[in-house]
Amino acid sequence: MAQDLNQMEKQLEATCWELLQEVTDPEIPVISMVEMGMIHQVRVNSGIVIVEVLPTFVGCPALEIMKKNITEKLVEAEGVSEVQVHFVYDPAWTSDRIAVDARDKLRSFGIAPPPLDFKPGDSWEVCCPYCDSPYTQIENLFGPAACRSILYCRHCKNPFEALKPIY
Amino acid sequence: MADMVRVETVEQAKQNQEYVQALADLLFQLADDDFILAYRGSEWLGLAPHIEEDVAFSSMSQDMMGHAVMFYEMLEALGLGKADDIAQLREAKDFRNAILVERKNGAGDYNDNPHYDWAYAIVRSYVYGLHKQVRLEALLQSSYVPLAQVSRKMLTEHRYHLMHWQVWLNQLANSTPDARHKLEAAISLVWEDAGELSDLGPNAEQIVRYGLIAGEELLRQKWLNETKEIFKKAGLNWPGEPGAASERGRAGEHTVDLEQAVATLSEVYRIDPAASW
């Protein structure tokens, strides 16, 4: 019996991860919160699902929307009686957590992904998400969201955004 | 003699009332500093020198307010009331922010001829930010593990705030004589209050004894050394030892500016504290 229950919870946990693939970042709708590396853990305990989320930026106003979207999505699943979303800060979210194959999706949305393996002291060089030119300049460190900056491509003359390296 | 403990959870903290008291005293300082300065930043909305700056400054203020929320939530976890109530229902005398962050943005009011001082905004944000950097770094070693964890997160974000203000400082320092003059006047003004930033309040001894944060003198020296370096690189004269206002914000003494800020920021909340947002 106990083993069956355990098996069921494992299954429900897997279902939750699948469903979370459909919950997108409200400000970047092409990429899921799982791909953003923001889902730290999913635990199931007698029908109660606990999702641990790592915020990209603490002051992000989208956090409450994410919480709501996660809850609404998971509560649909069979066997779920309650959904709790906890924001946790250990481990801290870093931009290397973004899934490698999600980086192209960001580009297609006009957002340059953050550099991989960024270290303190490295200079932040950004290639244009449209034409891949490195001939770009930062126009504003803080764009429409704290996690993004506004840049301008001097090659294809397009403005674009870039996700800041967080390390 | 530091009572070096490692407190992993809020339940563990609550086993020692003295520890809780020292922790709460420190959290109020951290929260109120960020909250009130973020509020002053929000008062620049629509008034910053250009639209890009407007976007950037509001974004940073929002982020800083997010940091304040985290500290208020830690106070809530300690059993000191709801985070929103702590932020919005206290009177000015219950705030523990340094006087520097409560000063108005300049002449006039937000809705009535705001002749705000942009140079003051730059210098205040930057000098405060440099101190916050030192403070967050010190908090990484805090005996209260949850506080060390959130500080680590805040540091990753805060460095971008500093980069932003550094650009402005350098630009003004190397611009026209008028810009330079305004910048120097702003430095003098900020310097009248800045010395209070590393004040840990009347309970400083306990705060340090319990290993919650490094001592005042250490914080102060590190912060002054870094600020000195930055002023030097920008070609600015070092203004010497920073002073402190006659009121001591860390002890709950404040100027009328804070009363105005608290009244304005909590006006809507006070109409119906039970409303769901």
Automatic annotation (TrEMBL), chain A:
It comes from the Bacteria. InterPro entries: Fe-S_Maturation_MIP18, FSCA_dom_sf, MIP18-like, PaaD-like, Zn_ribbon_PaaD. Pfam families: FeS_assembly_P, Zn_ribbon_PaaD. SUPFAM superfamilies: Fe-S cluster assembly (FSCA) domain-like. Residues 114-164 form the PaaD zinc beta ribbon domain. Transmembrane segments: none annotated. Residues 15-85 form the MIP18 family-like domain. This is Phenylacetate-CoA oxygenase subunit PaaJ. It comes from Brevibacillus invocatus.
From TrEMBL, chain B:
One of its GO terms (cellular component) is cytosol. The gene is paaI. It comes from Brevibacillus invocatus. One of its GO terms (biological process) is phenylacetate catabolic process. InterPro entries: Aromatic_CoA_ox/epox (IPR052703), Ferritin-like (IPR012347), Ferritin-like_SF (IPR009078), PaaA_PaaC (IPR007814), PaaC (IPR011882). Pfam families: PaaA_PaaC (PF05138). It comes from the Bacteria. This is Phenylacetate-CoA oxygenase subunit PaaI.
